[in-house]
Amino acid sequence: MRRPRCLAVDLTLHLPAGVTVAADAVSGEVAAGALHLVDAAALAGARYLPATAASPASVRLILADPSGFTVGALGTLTCTATSGTIPSATSFSLDGFSARDANGVALAGIAPQLALRAQ
Fold first, then answer.
1. Number of structural domains the chain divides into
2. Model pTM greater than 0.70?
């Protein structure tokens, strides 16, 4: 039996202290150019929530591809660290991850991976 294709991914990325993402100050919509998708046919929505006293900054990402995603990297999110902040990959965390098929049914056995590239 063929495995259903993953057509949509939903997750929240929690950022460490001192790390932000360029976004509209009112809506939180991530700025054009901050999110680069690997697949040109994919669509994305990304909303930045700044840190508060009770919670770290985060970015909610929803990615969809009508042809289905392939195994591997889906995209790159450019973050900015304040002077003196040196984040590590373990200082970021993912929450609420789901991968869904064309009917919106969650697909089991798909796990997210996060990689950090500092510049």
1. 1
2. yes
